[in-house]
Amino acid sequence: MLDQHQPGVAATTDMYGRYIFPDDAEDIKAHRFFKSVPWDTLQNTAPPFVPHIDSLEDTHYFDESEPLDDRIESVAEKPGLTDEEVRFILREFRPSIQNVAIRMIHAPYDSGALRSRDLEIDSVSTFLDEEKELLKRFMREYGRRVPKRPRDIILRDDNMKGTAMEVRKQSAFMGYEWHSVRKKAY
Q1: By C-alpha distance, which of 7, 30, 5 is closest to 19?
Q2: Closest Cα to residue 68, out of 186, 173, 161?
Q3: Which residues pair with 145 in a beta bridge?
Q4: Which DSSP symbol is given to 24?
Q5: What b/e string do you get for 103-134 counting C-beta neighbours within 10 Å, with b at 16 or more?
Q6: Cβ within 8 Å of residue 100, ≥6 positions away
Q7: Separation of alpha carbons 150 and 96, rounded Å
Q8: The pLDDT of residue 87 is above 80
Q9: Three-state SS for 70?
Q10: Which InterPro entries does the record match to this protein (predicted)?
Q11: Cα–Cα distance measured from residue 94 to residue 126, given in angstroms and rounded to the nearest whole number
Q12: For all residues of the chain together, what is the average pLDDT?
């Protein structure tokens, strides 16, 4: 095992600028926490738990969460595109593509609806691959998202939201103290 802090040892970096050392994996495997792991036969070992997945709904909690949107939609907000505007934007494509685009952007969508619309687009065999990609991009660009609301019921109430946040900020670290590390002479 090489000493990674030796002068003269050239440290290379990966494409993200993180340092890579020749024996990184071996160092990790040699750590006492992983001593009992059979590394040579790990790929042949049965996992301790295998989840039973029946549908996409079983895994939707693992999707990346979108940022919360606290804004309230106002009347002044730009309305969606009219059918004529959609037809003008997609004038180079077949009318069937234009009709699907019109239908898809009229109803607001959340992440679950977006996934199901993507699957619906992919399932249409009469569309070319470039038309499917165009519809997906068009829906994301011109479709309306359902505004996300805070999960906390107190933060949904306009009268209580400000007070609740102030109380939470003041008491966030109550009971925790920070002590500086004392230097010891050895």
Answers
A1: 5
A2: 161
A3: 109
A4: H
A5: ebbeeebeeeebeebeeebeeeeebeeebbeb
A6: 121, 124, 135
A7: 38
A8: yes
A9: coil
A10: AGC-kinase_C
A11: 11
A12: 78
Tens-place pLDDT, residues 31-69 = 889 888 888 998 998 888 888 888 877 776 766 655 555
pLDDT greater than 50 at residue 74 = no
Are the CB atoms for 79 and 161 separated by under 8 Å? no
Q: Which of 72, 74, 66, 69 is nearest to 150 (CA)?
A: 69
* pLDDT value of residue 5: 53
Q: Which of 95, 112, 113 is nearest to 104 (CA)?
A: 113
The per-residue pLDDT for range 137-177, each reduced to its tens digit, is 888 888 888 877 778 888 888 899 999 999 988 888 777 66
Burial of 49-66, coded b for 16+ CB within 10 Å and e otherwise, reads eeeeeeeeeeeeeeeeee
CB atoms within 10 A of CB 90: 20
Least confident of 67-71, 95-99, 111-115, 170-174: 67-71
Q: Which residues pair with 13 in a beta bridge?
A: 19
- Greatest CA span in the chain, whole angstroms? 81
- Of 4, 51, 1, nearest to 30 by C-alpha is 1
